[in-house]
Amino acid sequence: MSTAYDCNRPDGRESGLAAAANTVRAGGLVVLPTDTVYGIGANAFDAEAVGALLAAKGRGRDMPVPVLVGSWSTIDGLVQSVSKQARALVEAFWPGGLSLILPQAPSLAWDLGDARGTVNLRMPLHPVALDLLREVGPMAVSSANRTGNPPPATAQQAQDQLGDSVQVYLDGGPTGEPVASTIVDLTQSTPRVLRQGEITLEQLTEVLGVEVEPLA
């Protein structure tokens, strides 16, 4: 059975974050607000929990789950190395609507799907999400919808789709018009935009000082 918490009220936020943190540590699933859409999240280092997340969405391993972090420095332990380009983009756009694909640290014992040695990282600009991430560490988070359905802008829309497959719903109010994050692939010598979203090509080029390739 799932429980929803109104995080717009101080008492609801405190109890909701405590319940969500306990659920994540126990291998369960939570729905949380982000600055783009509501997400369904699990402990990134718990393969069974990530598998349950994919099952709840009706999604296959061919679409690996992104990872959200609560601070800039967290990525240092998650990737092979943080390049100058990655550092510049993190400092310019995190927290916010920019996702970075980087080679993961070889020593990491996690299974996010068929990621082929890479990880998709983002730091969201939402206080509830950041509080939870800073409490439990990196989380595997995907949009809180069944595959093929629109991503939810409210906790209720997420609950309507995912129901009791999620133990805790954190309601932070409507996210507004859903705007996807921009995804930049930094695994090659030239940065590539895999998805155009909140951050524009012009903004990326200005920060990096080099032309950023759009997805063909």
Verbal overview:
- The chain has 216 residues and is an alpha/beta fold.
- It has a single domain (3-208), classed as Alpha-Beta Complex (DHBP synthase).
- It is built from six helices and ten strands, in the order E-H-E-E-H-E-H-E-E-H-E-H-E-E-E-H.
- It has helices at residues 10-25, 47-57, 84-93, 127-136, 155-162, 201-208, and strands at 3-6, 30-32, 39-43, 67-68, 98-103, 118-122, 139-143, 168-171, 182-185, 192-195.
- Strands 1-8-2-3-7-4-6-5-9-10 form a ten-stranded mixed sheet, with helices on both faces.
- Strand 9 (182-185) and strand 10 (192-195) form a beta hairpin.
- Helix 1 runs parallel beside helix 4 (127-136).
- The longest helix has 16 residues, at 10-25.
- It is globular.
- The protein starts with a strand and ends in an 8-residue tail after the last helix.
